[in-house]
Amino acid sequence: MSEQLHDLRLTVNGVAHALRVPARRLLSDALRHDLGLTGTHVGCEHGVCGACTVLLDGLPTRSCLMFAVSAVDVDITTVEGLTEADGTLGAVQQAFLECHGLQCGFCTPGFLTTVTAGLRQHPTPTEDDARDMVAGNLCRCTGYTNIVRSVLRAAELAGGEA
Ligand code: FES
Ligand code: FES
Description:
Blueprint: E1 5-12, E2 15-22, H1 27-34, E3 53-56, E4 59-62, E5 75-77, H2 91-98, H3 108-121, H4 127-133, H5 145-158
Parallel strand pairs: 1-5
Antiparallel strand pairs: 1-2, 3-4, 3-5
This protein binds FE2/S2 (inorganic) cluster (FES) (2 copies).
One FE2/S2 (inorganic) cluster (FES) binds next to loops.
């Protein structure tokens, strides 16, 4: 028997999308496969690595732990939505670029969304705050030093309004 499909609307980066998906479609898969927003990466699929982090009404959320049908009625922001309206890099993206906060880049979308939310809560972080902010995200390449520098630089670039 074929799986029952559900019609839903997801608002992603300010744009409403109509989807028809099975009830168990993960939000991460809906974003990547149904909407083509492949900036959201999937690593562990168990809520551990943070690569799939998106913002739901501004709060960082692991999209691999959530069904797409549960994400209606919220504003979803993916890494693609962190750029400025004119297409230039947002402050957090620019800071990671300047400070070499990435190597392979697999983990980066999750860091960018996490840090975006973190700076809204702590617009002028100390180094310890910056470390705490990214403590739930795993990176196998960088050793984190440049990621922490990137967080501090992002705060500077955002001028307290990330
Ligand atoms: S893929 Fe979701 S936390 Fe690792
Ligand atoms: S830059 Fe490669 S996993 Fe973080």
